[in-house]
Amino acid sequence: MKKFRLNNAVIALLMVAITFVSCSKDENSETKVTAADLSGSITGVKTLDAGVTYTITGPVIVEDGGELNIPAGTTIKAKKGFSSYLLVLQGGKINVNGTADQPVVMTADDETGATSGYWGGLIINGKAPLPVNADGTASTGSTEINSAYKYGGTVPTDNSGSIKYLVIKYAGARSSADVEHNGLTLNAVGNGTVIENIYVYKSADDGVEFFGGTVNVTNLLVVSPDDDMFDFTQGYTGELKNAYGIWENGYTSTEADPRGIEADGNFDGLTPTQTGQSNFKVTNVTFDLRLAPGTTVATQMMDVMKIRRGAKITVANALVKGTGTAVDLVDFTDSKGDGIYSSAISLTNLLTTTPTKQINVTGTTTAPNVAINPSTPNTGCATNLFAWTKYGF
């Protein structure tokens, strides 16, 4: 009988395959995932290994009842493309257990020359409320990247897990102008979910976008997103606290209207008669424009804050500064409906350039509840909150 001898490389490959099969075998108990490639559905409780560098090679979907645990210090890289993303469905949970010393990092598999839109990003679908339909029923939404996945419901305290000390780089791939990821996408996420200490670097479309829901986010740094720094829509009612947005020197946008805050009451202005429009808080926020004065859409911020389509916002201790250009400081106007003028906004402007308009409203008699350059200057968001990111302030 002829004998066959396996070399070390073949043995190593077989061991990885055997390990992956054993990790996927039992969906009802916690298993440790040590295979380096990530894709497909996650059911049961799965825990990654901080000693392994993972690569997202296709959609990673945490199913209803599934739970993904990511320990401190874990690095997850993603292949280039729209289909490289991590999606948590309604009823699923993700626990990112990073620390200040050992954050969890999600990034491109090749950072050499990588920029915004390299891979998908992180999307979470919850069961928290969206605006209520005219017949009094709860409305639902369809995930922007795949309409088959729904979000929204009647559970404001819905819990999709816990995310602490997470870095997301180069996310936001798109398949079309209307089908695109963000750095972090929160779809009807409930306030039972913990999200704090997040750093989003060079994302497209937005740094973070809230589609409805009640989740509160604390300590968020967004650097050079292709479009908006912080985007809110579809009946969001939580609070963003301690937020810092930066456009770095040399930044340009491919979008038509990059902004600091973009706030819509309802989805794309399509349902202005729904009850439960966006009504939320932003506390301690800085917009830092570190680029040269701009004269084109690609190099200037259209609005530091755009409040439109029935949205109401309370902004306390806001600061805009830097050498870049903002066309408007606060703009309430839109062809599909203005924002709510009784929104309470306090903004200190320390830009070295002069905006075209400080406050833009429809007509000339309305006096919105906006204080530009209050007598006690705002300080914005403290930078020491983000020392763990090692970003150079």
Number of strands: 29
Proportion of residues in helical segments: under 10%
Instruction: Kindly report how far apart the N and C termini lie.
Output: 70 Å
Mean pLDDT: 92
Structural category is mainly beta
Low-confidence stretches: 1-26
Major sheet: 25 strands, parallel
Radius of gyration: 22 Å
So how many helices? 1
Strand content: 35-45%
Shape: globular
Oligomer state of the chains in this structure:
single chain
Order of helices and strands: HEEEEEEEEEEEEEEEEEEEEEEEEEEEEE
Provide a quick synopsis of the model.
The protein is mostly beta strands and 393 residues long. It has one helix spanning 8-25; strands at 31-33, 37-42, 45-48, 53-62, 67-71, 75-78, 86-88, 93-97, 104-108, 122-125, 141-142, 150-151, 161-169, 174-176, 179-180, 184-187, 194-201, 208-211, 217-223, 230-233, 239-247, 259-264, 279-289, 301-308, 312-322, 326-331, 344-351, 357-360, 370-372.
Characterization of this structure:
The protein is mainly beta and 393 residues long. The strands form 3 sheets. It has a 25-stranded parallel beta sheet that branches. A two-stranded antiparallel sheet has the order 11-12. Helix content is 5%, strand content 41%. Mean pLDDT is 92; it is low at 1-26. It has 1 helix and 29 strands.
